[in-house]
Amino acid sequence: MTQLLHDLLLPEMGFLRNALLIGAFSSIALGVIGTMVVTRRISSIAGASSHAALGGVGVALFLQRVCLWEWCTPTIGAVIGAMAASLLVGIVNLYAREREDTIIGVVWALGMSIGLLFLARTPGYVDWQGYLFGNILLLEQQDLYMTLGLDAIVLIPTLLFYNNVLAMSFDGTFAELRGVRGRLIYLVLLALTALTIVLMINVVGIILVIALLTLPAATAGCFTRHLWSMMGLATVLSAFFVTAGLLVSYCYRLPSGPVIVVLAALFYVAGLVVSARSGRR
User: Fold this and answer.
1) What is the pTM of this model?
2) What are phi and psi of 224, to 5 degrees?
3) pLDDT tens digits for 58-108?
4) What is the Cα–Cα distance from 87 to 92, expressed in whole angstroms?
5) Using CA atoms, how far apart are residues 195 and 174, in angstroms rounded to an integer?
6) Which of 50, 260, 233 is nearest to 136 (CA)?
Protein backbone atom coordinates (compact mmCIF):
# COMPACT_ATOMS: atom_id res chain seq x y z
CA MET A 1 0.00 0.00 0.00
CA THR A 2 2.86 2.36 0.82
CA GLN A 3 4.41 1.66 -2.57
CA LEU A 4 1.07 2.30 -4.26
CA LEU A 5 0.66 5.68 -2.56
CA HIS A 6 4.22 6.55 -3.52
CA ASP A 7 3.54 5.63 -7.15
CA LEU A 8 0.40 7.79 -7.23
CA LEU A 9 2.48 10.87 -6.36
CA LEU A 10 4.93 10.35 -9.21
CA PRO A 11 4.59 12.87 -12.09
CA GLU A 12 4.41 10.14 -14.72
CA MET A 13 1.43 8.53 -12.94
CA GLY A 14 -0.96 11.30 -13.93
CA PHE A 15 -2.99 8.82 -16.00
CA LEU A 16 -3.80 6.79 -12.88
CA ARG A 17 -4.78 9.87 -10.87
CA ASN A 18 -6.93 11.00 -13.76
CA ALA A 19 -8.61 7.58 -13.93
CA LEU A 20 -9.38 7.66 -10.20
CA LEU A 21 -10.94 11.12 -10.50
CA ILE A 22 -13.06 10.11 -13.49
CA GLY A 23 -14.16 6.96 -11.68
CA ALA A 24 -15.19 8.94 -8.60
CA PHE A 25 -17.14 11.60 -10.50
CA SER A 26 -18.75 9.14 -12.91
CA SER A 27 -20.15 7.34 -9.87
CA ILE A 28 -22.59 10.22 -9.33
CA ALA A 29 -24.31 9.63 -12.67
CA LEU A 30 -24.06 5.87 -12.21
CA GLY A 31 -25.67 5.98 -8.77
CA VAL A 32 -28.57 8.22 -9.82
CA ILE A 33 -29.35 6.70 -13.23
CA GLY A 34 -28.56 3.16 -12.10
CA THR A 35 -31.09 3.44 -9.28
CA MET A 36 -33.83 4.56 -11.67
CA VAL A 37 -32.91 1.83 -14.16
CA VAL A 38 -33.14 -0.83 -11.44
CA THR A 39 -36.37 0.44 -9.90
CA ARG A 40 -38.03 0.82 -13.32
CA ARG A 41 -36.65 -2.59 -14.39
CA ILE A 42 -35.33 -1.36 -17.73
CA SER A 43 -31.86 -2.92 -17.57
CA SER A 44 -32.54 -4.76 -20.83
CA ILE A 45 -33.24 -1.46 -22.61
CA ALA A 46 -29.97 -0.12 -21.27
CA GLY A 47 -28.26 -3.24 -22.63
CA ALA A 48 -29.67 -2.64 -26.10
CA SER A 49 -28.48 0.99 -25.93
CA SER A 50 -24.94 0.01 -25.00
CA HIS A 51 -24.64 -2.41 -27.90
CA ALA A 52 -26.24 0.03 -30.33
CA ALA A 53 -23.54 2.50 -29.27
CA LEU A 54 -21.04 0.27 -31.08
CA GLY A 55 -23.04 0.82 -34.26
CA GLY A 56 -22.66 4.57 -33.81
CA VAL A 57 -18.94 4.21 -33.16
CA GLY A 58 -18.46 2.15 -36.32
CA VAL A 59 -20.38 4.58 -38.52
CA ALA A 60 -18.58 7.58 -37.02
CA LEU A 61 -15.10 6.12 -37.59
CA PHE A 62 -16.04 5.20 -41.17
CA LEU A 63 -17.30 8.71 -41.91
CA GLN A 64 -14.27 10.26 -40.23
CA ARG A 65 -11.66 8.26 -42.14
CA VAL A 66 -13.37 7.57 -45.47
CA CYS A 67 -15.56 10.65 -45.93
CA LEU A 68 -13.10 12.89 -44.02
CA TRP A 69 -15.74 14.19 -41.61
CA GLU A 70 -13.25 15.15 -38.91
CA TRP A 71 -15.96 16.40 -36.55
CA CYS A 72 -17.66 12.99 -36.54
CA THR A 73 -15.85 11.47 -33.56
CA PRO A 74 -16.56 8.03 -32.05
CA THR A 75 -18.04 9.71 -28.97
CA ILE A 76 -20.58 11.60 -31.08
CA GLY A 77 -21.42 8.41 -32.93
CA ALA A 78 -21.83 6.48 -29.69
CA VAL A 79 -24.17 9.13 -28.25
CA ILE A 80 -26.33 9.14 -31.38
CA GLY A 81 -26.42 5.33 -31.56
CA ALA A 82 -27.23 4.80 -27.89
CA MET A 83 -29.89 7.52 -27.71
CA ALA A 84 -31.51 6.42 -30.97
CA ALA A 85 -31.77 2.85 -29.68
CA SER A 86 -33.15 3.89 -26.28
CA LEU A 87 -35.77 6.24 -27.69
CA LEU A 88 -36.74 3.80 -30.45
CA VAL A 89 -37.41 1.01 -27.97
CA GLY A 90 -39.21 3.39 -25.62
CA ILE A 91 -41.44 4.95 -28.28
CA VAL A 92 -42.36 1.62 -29.87
CA ASN A 93 -43.09 0.18 -26.44
CA LEU A 94 -45.29 3.14 -25.44
CA TYR A 95 -47.19 3.78 -28.64
CA ALA A 96 -47.00 0.69 -30.85
CA ARG A 97 -47.65 -1.80 -28.03
CA GLU A 98 -45.18 -4.25 -29.51
CA ARG A 99 -43.48 -6.93 -27.45
CA GLU A 100 -40.69 -5.11 -25.64
CA ASP A 101 -38.36 -8.12 -25.42
CA THR A 102 -38.54 -8.66 -29.18
CA ILE A 103 -37.75 -5.02 -29.97
CA ILE A 104 -34.84 -5.02 -27.54
CA GLY A 105 -33.41 -8.20 -29.07
CA VAL A 106 -33.59 -6.75 -32.59
CA VAL A 107 -32.00 -3.42 -31.60
CA TRP A 108 -29.34 -5.20 -29.52
CA ALA A 109 -28.20 -7.48 -32.35
CA LEU A 110 -28.64 -4.92 -35.16
CA GLY A 111 -26.63 -2.24 -33.39
CA MET A 112 -23.60 -4.47 -32.85
CA SER A 113 -23.82 -5.91 -36.36
CA ILE A 114 -23.87 -2.46 -38.01
CA GLY A 115 -20.92 -1.38 -35.89
CA LEU A 116 -18.81 -4.42 -36.76
CA LEU A 117 -19.62 -4.11 -40.48
CA PHE A 118 -18.55 -0.46 -40.62
CA LEU A 119 -15.44 -1.16 -38.53
CA ALA A 120 -14.49 -3.91 -40.97
CA ARG A 121 -14.64 -1.43 -43.87
CA THR A 122 -12.80 1.35 -42.03
CA PRO A 123 -9.18 1.73 -43.19
CA GLY A 124 -6.35 1.82 -40.69
CA TYR A 125 -6.05 0.34 -37.24
CA VAL A 126 -9.22 0.28 -35.13
CA ASP A 127 -9.00 -0.72 -31.46
CA TRP A 128 -12.44 -2.36 -31.37
CA GLN A 129 -11.52 -4.31 -28.24
CA GLY A 130 -11.13 -1.00 -26.44
CA TYR A 131 -14.79 -0.25 -27.13
CA LEU A 132 -15.90 -3.74 -26.09
CA PHE A 133 -13.88 -3.94 -22.86
CA GLY A 134 -12.89 -0.31 -22.13
CA ASN A 135 -9.71 1.07 -20.60
CA ILE A 136 -10.13 3.78 -18.02
CA LEU A 137 -6.35 4.26 -17.83
CA LEU A 138 -6.34 5.74 -21.34
CA LEU A 139 -8.82 8.51 -20.56
CA GLU A 140 -7.68 12.12 -20.82
CA GLN A 141 -8.41 15.44 -19.12
CA GLN A 142 -11.26 16.21 -21.51
CA ASP A 143 -12.98 13.00 -20.40
CA LEU A 144 -13.02 14.36 -16.86
CA TYR A 145 -14.80 17.51 -18.06
CA MET A 146 -17.29 15.35 -19.97
CA THR A 147 -17.95 13.40 -16.79
CA LEU A 148 -18.62 16.55 -14.79
CA GLY A 149 -20.96 17.78 -17.53
CA LEU A 150 -22.87 14.50 -17.49
CA ASP A 151 -23.22 14.71 -13.70
CA ALA A 152 -24.81 18.15 -14.07
CA ILE A 153 -27.14 16.95 -16.84
CA VAL A 154 -28.26 14.03 -14.67
CA LEU A 155 -28.49 15.76 -11.29
CA ILE A 156 -30.30 18.97 -12.23
CA PRO A 157 -33.51 17.42 -13.65
CA THR A 158 -33.47 14.71 -10.98
CA LEU A 159 -33.44 17.29 -8.19
CA LEU A 160 -35.98 19.56 -9.87
CA PHE A 161 -38.47 16.77 -10.58
CA TYR A 162 -37.60 14.38 -7.76
CA ASN A 163 -41.19 13.84 -6.61
CA ASN A 164 -42.30 12.97 -10.14
CA VAL A 165 -39.34 10.63 -10.57
CA LEU A 166 -40.18 9.00 -7.24
CA ALA A 167 -43.78 8.44 -8.24
CA MET A 168 -42.85 7.02 -11.65
CA SER A 169 -40.19 4.73 -10.20
CA PHE A 170 -42.58 2.71 -8.06
CA ASP A 171 -46.10 3.16 -9.50
CA GLY A 172 -46.25 4.65 -12.98
CA THR A 173 -50.01 4.10 -13.40
CA PHE A 174 -50.87 5.90 -10.17
CA ALA A 175 -48.46 8.72 -11.03
CA GLU A 176 -50.16 9.29 -14.39
CA LEU A 177 -53.57 9.36 -12.70
CA ARG A 178 -52.22 12.13 -10.45
CA GLY A 179 -51.23 14.21 -13.47
CA VAL A 180 -47.56 13.26 -13.76
CA ARG A 181 -46.37 13.21 -17.38
CA GLY A 182 -45.14 9.68 -17.10
CA ARG A 183 -44.36 9.07 -20.76
CA LEU A 184 -42.21 12.17 -21.03
CA ILE A 185 -40.30 11.30 -17.86
CA TYR A 186 -39.82 7.76 -19.15
CA LEU A 187 -38.32 8.97 -22.44
CA VAL A 188 -36.09 11.51 -20.67
CA LEU A 189 -34.87 8.72 -18.38
CA LEU A 190 -34.00 6.60 -21.42
CA ALA A 191 -32.07 9.50 -22.96
CA LEU A 192 -30.11 10.11 -19.73
CA THR A 193 -29.43 6.39 -19.45
CA ALA A 194 -27.99 6.40 -22.98
CA LEU A 195 -25.67 9.32 -22.12
CA THR A 196 -24.46 7.56 -18.97
CA ILE A 197 -23.83 4.37 -20.91
CA VAL A 198 -21.68 6.20 -23.48
CA LEU A 199 -19.55 7.64 -20.69
CA MET A 200 -19.15 4.24 -19.04
CA ILE A 201 -18.13 2.54 -22.28
CA ASN A 202 -14.73 4.22 -21.85
CA VAL A 203 -14.45 2.80 -18.32
CA VAL A 204 -15.51 -0.85 -18.63
CA GLY A 205 -16.56 -1.24 -22.27
CA ILE A 206 -19.79 -2.14 -24.02
CA ILE A 207 -19.93 -5.71 -22.73
CA LEU A 208 -19.59 -4.84 -19.03
CA VAL A 209 -21.29 -1.44 -18.87
CA ILE A 210 -24.69 -2.77 -17.81
CA ALA A 211 -23.11 -4.56 -14.86
CA LEU A 212 -21.57 -1.34 -13.57
CA LEU A 213 -24.82 0.53 -14.17
CA THR A 214 -27.01 -1.93 -12.27
CA LEU A 215 -24.88 -3.74 -9.67
CA PRO A 216 -24.20 -0.77 -7.34
CA ALA A 217 -27.89 0.20 -7.39
CA ALA A 218 -29.01 -3.41 -6.92
CA THR A 219 -26.61 -3.79 -3.99
CA ALA A 220 -27.92 -0.57 -2.45
CA GLY A 221 -31.45 -1.92 -2.86
CA CYS A 222 -30.58 -4.78 -0.52
CA PHE A 223 -30.20 -2.31 2.35
CA THR A 224 -32.67 0.52 1.69
CA ARG A 225 -36.06 1.07 0.11
CA HIS A 226 -36.00 4.90 -0.06
CA LEU A 227 -35.16 6.26 -3.51
CA TRP A 228 -32.94 9.10 -2.30
CA SER A 229 -30.94 6.89 0.06
CA MET A 230 -30.66 4.20 -2.61
CA MET A 231 -29.20 6.76 -5.01
CA GLY A 232 -26.74 7.98 -2.39
CA LEU A 233 -25.61 4.50 -1.36
CA ALA A 234 -25.34 3.40 -5.00
CA THR A 235 -23.10 6.41 -5.71
CA VAL A 236 -20.81 5.56 -2.78
CA LEU A 237 -20.66 1.88 -3.75
CA SER A 238 -19.95 2.71 -7.38
CA ALA A 239 -17.08 5.00 -6.40
CA PHE A 240 -15.69 2.28 -4.15
CA PHE A 241 -15.95 -0.42 -6.83
CA VAL A 242 -14.23 1.69 -9.47
CA THR A 243 -11.49 2.92 -7.13
CA ALA A 244 -10.79 -0.47 -5.55
CA GLY A 245 -10.97 -2.22 -8.91
CA LEU A 246 -8.49 0.23 -10.41
CA LEU A 247 -6.03 -0.19 -7.55
CA VAL A 248 -6.28 -3.98 -7.56
CA SER A 249 -5.84 -4.14 -11.34
CA TYR A 250 -2.81 -1.85 -11.10
CA CYS A 251 -1.16 -3.86 -8.32
CA TYR A 252 -1.71 -7.25 -9.98
CA ARG A 253 -1.47 -6.09 -13.62
CA LEU A 254 -5.02 -7.14 -14.53
CA PRO A 255 -7.52 -5.49 -16.91
CA SER A 256 -9.39 -2.85 -14.91
CA GLY A 257 -12.92 -3.30 -16.35
CA PRO A 258 -13.40 -6.98 -15.45
CA VAL A 259 -11.86 -6.46 -12.00
CA ILE A 260 -14.32 -3.63 -11.26
CA VAL A 261 -17.32 -5.71 -12.34
CA VAL A 262 -16.22 -8.87 -10.46
CA LEU A 263 -15.76 -6.81 -7.30
CA ALA A 264 -19.22 -5.26 -7.73
CA ALA A 265 -20.77 -8.70 -8.31
CA LEU A 266 -19.18 -10.12 -5.16
CA PHE A 267 -20.59 -7.30 -3.07
CA TYR A 268 -24.02 -7.79 -4.66
CA VAL A 269 -24.03 -11.48 -3.73
CA ALA A 270 -22.93 -10.57 -0.20
CA GLY A 271 -25.73 -8.00 -0.06
CA LEU A 272 -28.29 -10.62 -1.09
CA VAL A 273 -27.06 -12.95 1.64
CA VAL A 274 -27.16 -10.27 4.33
CA SER A 275 -30.56 -9.08 3.16
CA ALA A 276 -32.00 -12.60 3.17
CA ARG A 277 -30.71 -13.32 6.66
CA SER A 278 -32.14 -10.10 8.02
CA GLY A 279 -35.52 -10.82 6.42
CA ARG A 280 -35.56 -7.76 4.11
CA ARG A 281 -36.33 -9.79 0.98
Assistant:
1) 0.88
2) -150, 155
3) 999 999 999 999 889 888 899 999 999 998 888 887 777 666 678 888 888
4) 8
5) 28
6) 260
